[in-house]
Structure formats: C-alpha cells, structure tokens
Amino acid sequence: MIRRFFLLIFALAINLGLQAQEKFDPVAWRAPYDLSLDGWGIERFTIPVDFAAKIPYKGVEDVRFTTGWSKPQSDEYWSYAFLWYVEGQQVLDSKTIENNLSMYFDGLVHRNIEKRALPKELIKKTKAKFKKLAQPQGEDELTFIGTIQMVDYMGKQPITLQSTIHVRKCPGSGHTIIFHQFSPQQRTALVWTKLNGLWDNFRCSE
User: Fold this and answer.
1) Rounded CA gap, 66 and 77, in Å?
2) What count of Cα atoms within 13 Å lies in the side-chain half-sphere of residue 102?
3) Could you read off the pLDDT of 104-158 as tens digits, one per residue?
4) Dihedral angle, C-alpha 171, 65, 128, 107, nearest 10 °
5) Helix (H, G, I), strand (E, B) or coil at 113
6) Contact, 105 vs 134, CB < 8 A?
7) What is the CATH number of the domain that holds 168?
8) Which range of residues forms the domain containing residue 189?
9) What is the mean pLDDT of the chain?
10) Nearest Cα to Cα of residue 104 among 160, 155, 55
11) Are 78 and 66 spatial neighbours (Cβ–Cβ below 8 Å)?
C-alpha cells in the first residue's frame, strides 16, 4: 500500500514536470518562419487565446504592433498585425474568417470592459465582413479583404478597421499560416505600406 502511494506521488511529480516543460515561453520560442522584429512591438501567446477559447485552432499567435497603435493622436492608431501559426492544413472561407474574428474581438473587448470602465451603452457585438479575392496577392494561397466594426476600448467609441487576411502554408511544416492586418486608415495611407512591407518580407524557414 505504501509502495503504491509513493509510486502515485512519483507519477504525479513526473506529470507536473512535463507540464512545466511544455509551458509556452514567448521569449524562448523560435518561430519556424521569418517575420520582422525590428521597429515593432511584439507579443506572443498560445492559441486558443484565453479571451476567445472557442476559436478551433491550436498554435501560436505572433503579434506586431506599430509604434503608434495605442496613441489616439497617431496615424498608426489601432494599426497592427498578427500571425496565427496553427496546427494542420486548415480550410478557410469568408464565413470562417468572419466567425473567428468576431469571436476574437468580442473577447478582446469584454476583457477590457471593467479594466477600461466602458459604458454599457457602448458595448456592441463585433461585425466582421470579408470577401475572398479572386486572385490571391503575392505568394498567398488565399487572400481576404474586409472590415471589422467593433468597440474601440481605448478611445471608448465605435471604430471600423480595414483588414486583409493572408493564408499560406510553409512546405513540410504541417501548419497553416494566417496573417492578419488591421488599421482604421484607408488602404492608401502610409501605415498600410508598413503593414504590407511586413508581410512582403515574410519568409518560410528553410
């Protein structure tokens, strides 16, 4: 009986040790692709994200913030991008993009309701609307363009983000790359040159 008890404790200790080893470290993680780091704010975390757990993917979200993304007076306000590196060969269409991003931004807003003291009358469900381009951009397998109508929890007002979604697969990775770009600025604005340059310089690791 005592021997069985110690064996159980030993097994639990091993299990906890393995869990600790598997814990995601955003600093130590080495991306299996090249996405510029210079001049961008960076954040990384696992998918599913805690505020949008129903998005049906597993992987890593790799974020790039413009320097002015949180500054209302900046032309780069709310302009940023994030890459989803997700397991499996995902099949995407406009409806899937809309559902995923509606859940994502609804969750992001709700996480900030108390923190930002958002008035109840401001809170509205996110409306995402996308269409697939007949001709994908660059080396994309698929490209989608659309808009996100959401709550700007920093400025405490509604906001509409222009958005482009790029889908690509790196050979032999077994993962799908979904790259998202967002800005309230029109696509002719300078910030879109910066966002597009980030994706234009993306490379799969050899």
Assistant:
1) 8
2) 13
3) 999 999 999 999 999 999 999 999 999 999 999 999 999 999 999 999 999 999 9
4) 100
5) coil
6) no
7) 3.40.1000
8) 27-204
9) 90
10) 55
11) no
